[in-house]
Design a protein that fits this description.
Length: 266
């Protein structure tokens, strides 16, 4: 079994220090094997914001897989936005915009969906779609396959969601790669887990997990939260850990089993 702390939308620069400290303590208590951060580490992509984000990641004290969000491309500094783009992110966070981990139980691919020009909603390129398929081509069949991106790649069953640009292309690639779970952020809305049926084949479902904003003040009607996932072959439990003003606590847990290509609540 693997335990993943899924954090998103930290927005250093518009963050709450008390919540950040409590989050560090909570994640270490939960003994996660891996932290996955799905973007918007900073509010405006400024150097001191990236320095604060870097320090936070170091203090997590765990292996971390990170992807950038739209807020990690500077907005107002036009040279940084269109020429530098993710240079600061790559300097302070990681040079690898498509990190990949296969730890023997889970295989995780991070996808950079942030774009200078598309501003908020991001995009998947055709080469990224091909990269999704090739990343998992030689992965052992017993691994749980996970893709992490800032912008939502899929809409959960029965829910409307603003998706990344070229979401249809992304879906084909995810299905082709046999991906089981996608992790995302961006909307600052926590959704512990829901399945996304395949619109083409009506067959294989992918589990959608969205994280809220972990420590930022950009709450959009929700409190701060992160997701704690426990992953076994064909079995996932996802808890939303909500900030209650003093601590993070589990308010909602969803458990799913993957049976005949569908994720069934258990
Ligand atoms: Fe955000
Ligand atoms: Fe975002």
């Amino acid at each position: 079994m693997r335990t993943i702390a899924h954090l998103s939308d930290l927005h250093f620069g518009r963050h709450d220090d008390q919540v950040a400290e409590a989050l560090l303590a909570d994640v270490s208590l939960k003994s996660a094997d891996l932290a996955i951060v799905t973007g918007d580490l900073t509010q405006r992509g400024r150097i001191h914001q990236f320095e604060a984000a870097r320090s936070f990641l170091d203090r997590l004290g765990k292996p971390v897989l990170v992807v950038p969000g739209n807020h990690d491309i500077p907005l107002y500094d036009l040279i940084q936005r269109f020429v530098g783009r993710l240079a600061r992110y790559q300097r302070f966070i990681t040079g690898d915009l498509h990190p990949f981990i296969d730890d023997g139980e889970i295989a995780v691919l991070g996808l950079n969906t942030a774009r200078s020009a598309a501003i908020a909603n991001g995009r998947v390129s055709r080469s990224q779609a091909r990269a999704i398929v090739s990343a998992f081509a030689n992965v052992s069949a017993d691994r749980t396959r996970i893709v992490a991106a800032h912008h939502p790649l899929l809409a959960p069953k029965g829910a409307a969601a603003t998706l990344v640009g070229r979401a249809v292309l992304a879906r084909e690639a995810l299905s082709g790669a046999g991906v089981h779970i996608v992790l995302g952020g961006h909307h600052h809305h926590a959704l512990s887990a829901e399945s996304a049926p395949d619109p083409v084949e009506a067959r294989r479902e992918i589990l959608v997990v969205q994280a809220g904003t972990a420590i930022s003040e950009r709450l959009r009607g929700e409190t701060n939260s992160y997701n704690l996932l426990q992953i076994q072959p064909h079995r996932v439990t996802c808890a939303i850990r909500l900030w209650d003003g003093a601590n993070f606590d589990t308010r909602e847990t969803s458990a799913f089993v993957f049976v005949d290509g569908k994720w069934v609540r258990s």
